[in-house]
Amino acid sequence: MKLYSSEIAPNPRRVRIFLAEKGLSVPIVEIDMRTGEQLQPAFRKINPEGTIPVLELDNGVRIDDSFAICVYFEELQPEPSLLGRSAEEKAVILCWQRRVEREGLYAAMEGLRNFARSFKGRALTGADSYEQIPALAERGRIRVQRLYELIDKRLADNEWIAAGRFTIVDITMMVTVDFAKLIKVEIPETAANLRRWFTAVSARPSARA
Questions:
Q1: At residue 9, does pLDDT exceed 80?
Q2: Which of 107, 163, 190, 206 fits a disulfide with 143 by CB distance 3.0 to 4.6 angstroms?
Q3: Pair 173, 162: CB distance under 8 Å
Q4: Which one, of 3, 54, 20, 4, lies nearest residue 208 by Cα?
Q5: How far apart are CA 33 and CA 110, in angstroms?
Q6: Strands 28-30, 62-63: parallel, antiparallel or unpaired by DSSP?
Q7: Is the confidence at residue 127, as pLDDT, over 80?
């Protein structure tokens, strides 16, 4: 088993944090995204979409979605639970996970890929080429800001976002906050609850994974 990862990308970082929280160690193959290694023929043989992370199992099966990789490891090692134990808890965590991904992480990606010169002609991930749309960059920033407002309210009465403990939602939100700095979106000074939470999650050893 091995994990194709990149130290500069948010999705591989989510998986590495998840593994660290589980206390699991998987051999990592670092892909240099700065030089576009993920788009070269050698890596395209591993993942035709040219996206990272990819988990390659010993039997040759490859899983190329960060959340799916986390589901795989949760099944292998249920504790500590990061995806929920009861049916209700799993559903609530998944609801918040999808919301934070959609309005946070993917919105920040939309913002970055539609204005950064390094993504010219590659505004969307994957094998196909798409031109940048500047208006989407601003929309991405606005969406992230709106999510910060929502999560700040959520954390007014909760220590963690989706459950009474640290879960995958907290991982995704922490990665989002760090990644959104690239599009000049920071946690507002007025968002005291979000700032308190971010200090706590950033202090966890897994945050350095």
A1: yes
A2: 107
A3: no
A4: 20
A5: 18
A6: unpaired
A7: no
Q: Which residues have a Cβ under 8 Å from the Cβ of 102 and sit 6 or more positions away?
A: none
Going by C-beta distance under 8 Å and a sequence separation of 6 or more, which residues neighbour residue 89? 163
CA distances from 194 to 17, 90, 122 (A): 20, 23, 32
Closest CA to 64 of 127, 146, 8: 127
Which residues are CB-neighbours of 180 under 8 A, at least 6 positions away?
104, 108, 111, 144, 186
Burial (CB count <10 Å: 0-12, 13-18, 19+), residue 106 = middle
Q: Which amino acid is at 168?
A: I
Work out the mean pLDDT of the chain and round it to a whole number.
95
Let me know: does 194 contact 154? Beta carbons within 8 Å.
Answer: no
Q: Note the helical H segments in the chain.
A: 10-22, 41-44, 66-76, 87-100, 106-113, 134-154, 168-180, 192-202
Give the tokens for residue 91: 């559903």
